[in-house]
Automatic annotation (TrEMBL), chains A, B:
The keyword DNA-binding applies. InterPro entries: HTH_HxlR, WH-like_DNA-bd_sf, WH_DNA-bd_sf. Keywords: DNA-binding, Transcription, Transcription regulation. PROSITE patterns: HTH_HXLR. This is Helix-turn-helix transcriptional regulator. Residues 15-114 form the HTH hxlR-type domain. The keyword 4Fe-4S does not apply.
DNA sequence: CTGCATCCTGCACGATACTG
DNA sequence: CAGTATCGTGCAGGATGCAG
């Protein structure tokens, strides 16, 4: 029963929703949620491979923040070597489409953006 | 004619689309594009008022980056006091829905997120 | 394999003052 | 009003090493 709060606006610096916006609107979150939403439950190491270039520390922090906000669940297996899997929650999945759209936008429009940049810089 | 480049992936650290993703996936860009897309052409000062808490410097930089990438156009009026207006381009408008969706998500789910955080922190 | 601790660097961002 | 210039600060995030 998530209620819409029309008087809560990300535009207000005092509104906690802005903090939430800052968390979801960043490249690592966008990439992680997109990959998790597309692939389903994934291991830490596989996520790290997919998110090419991310450091272990940053991936851990990103996943922990997502878990804290209830967007991701962490499944620890009592094995050795350890195996930990991550999965989007129902709430987290509501973010999948919007964030995947952002990733897609970057991929689909990068050529046009690069041309615009050249034009702009040529003055 | 923006071509989809299926071999360009934000997941690759070497792909320029990731830089583009990093630019559009941040709170100030999300807020600015959402407001510009909803309100149409706007003055610098009005944008600054809407984006509560943003400094003049950061707003200038945000708008300049958007202009450079061809997402926003800058209209300078030869008046005194000066009047400068900003407006989304057609390309910029393709970002409006996705970024507005992110802002809306933050507003609509902040209550649930805050509850999850309390539960998580209570251990 | 997963993840934590430590250290370090760069940049995002804010504050302030000044100009056309 | 709409910037620019300058400076200061905090934090994101990378590198490395160690632990369970």
């Amino acid at each position: 029963m998530s209620q819409v709060m029309p008087d809560w606006s990300v535009l207000l610096s005092t509104c906690p929703s802005r903090t939430s916006l800052a968390r979801i609107a960043n490249k690592w979150t966008a990439m992680a949620v997109s990959v998790l939403g597309s692939n389903g439950r994934m291991r830490f190491g596989d996520l790290r491979t997919q998110l090419d270039g991310i450091s272990g520390k940053v991936l851990t922090e990103t996943l922990r923040d997502l878990e804290r906000d209830g967007l991701v669940t962490r499944h620890v297996h009592a094995e050795v070597p350890p195996r930990v899997e991550y999965e989007l929650t129902a709430l987290g999945f509501t973010l999948h489409a919007p964030l995947l759209a952002l990733c897609r936008w970057a991929e689909e429009h990068i050529a046009e953006v690069l041309v615009n940049r050249e034009i702009y810089d040529a003055r």
